[in-house]
Amino acid sequence: MGFSILIDFDGVLLNNSRLNTKISDRCDRYFSHKTGLSLQMSKKINRTYYKKYGHTLNLLNEKMLTDTKVFLEDFNDYVYDNKLLGEVKWDINKKDIFTFKEWAYVLSKLEADSIYVYSNAPTVWLEECISSLECLSSSALGLTNVVSVPEVNDGLFKPTPLVYDRMDTQLSNHIVFIDDSEQNLPIHRENWTNVLYDENVMYSSKSKDYTTIHSPKDMLSKMKQIHLHQKVEDQQS
Ligand SMILES: [Mg+2]
């Protein structure tokens, strides 16, 4: 049976602490700028609650701002500005290049029908990072496309069920979904195999809803298990 891969970007294909800090700081500053709260207070509120709301933008619109709304384009222009984009290639380090090379190798071995980067970040960020990583590592991901989830879903982010429904409709084959955020994994979807990427956890989760991998190469052995499991199920049905 053929399958497509949806792979998250930040925290999976790239996990660079300098760039992560720059983005978090910009989100806090945007939060402060829009709410009028001090930077210290904004940082505290934003970092405590943004995951619960899925994104800083949702936290602002749903909880913090009563008489106005903030929009995705405004947020992305502020956070992912030209200065940040121009610094990407200088901040990428050897570990990032090693991990990226490993992902490129693993993705080429999985023989998926199609491979999509599937991220809540804007296209400009994804494309800048991917082209820098491909250039610095002399390897390519062999992507079918880069999908910025909110840009193609009217501002909706992972893990809104509707965005997964749309991918289900668009891709008729089985979907292997890789993300580093447990709450993004769309559990209880018959057609999806969910993979949690967590390079810091040394044990495998016992969850029935997803498989945990600790490195890109871990994906190869886990995919063999998934294929075997599917073959047994196919024979039984
Ligand atoms: Mg992520």
Task: Tell me what the structure shows.
The chain is of the alpha/beta class. 53% of the residues lie in helices and 13% in strands. The chain has 2 domains: 3-15 and 93-236, HAD superfamily/HAD-like (Rossmann fold, 3-Layer(aba) Sandwich); 17-87. The protein is built from 10 helices and 6 strands; from the N terminus they run E-H-H-H-H-H-H-E-H-E-H-H-E-E-E-H. Strands 3-2-1-4-5-6 form a 6-stranded parallel beta sheet. Helix 7 (123-137) links the parallel strand 2 and strand 3 (145-148). The structure holds magnesium ion. Magnesium ion binds next to loops.
Which kinds of small molecule does this entry bind, naming each only once? magnesium ion
Number of DSSP-assigned strands: 6
Reported by name, the CATH topology of the largest domain is Rossmann fold
CATH architecture identity of the largest domain:
3-Layer(aba) Sandwich
Tell me what portion of residues adopts beta-strand conformation.
5-15%
Morphology: globular
Structural class of the helix and strand makeup?
Answer: alpha/beta
Give the class-level CATH name of the largest domain.
Answer: Alpha Beta
Largest sheet: 6 strands, parallel
Number of structural domains: 2
Summarize this, please?
Helices cover 53% and strands 13% of the residues.
What key phrases describe this protein's structure?
237 residues, alpha/beta, Rossmann fold, 2 domains, six-stranded parallel sheet, 10 helices, 53% helix, globular, binds magnesium ion
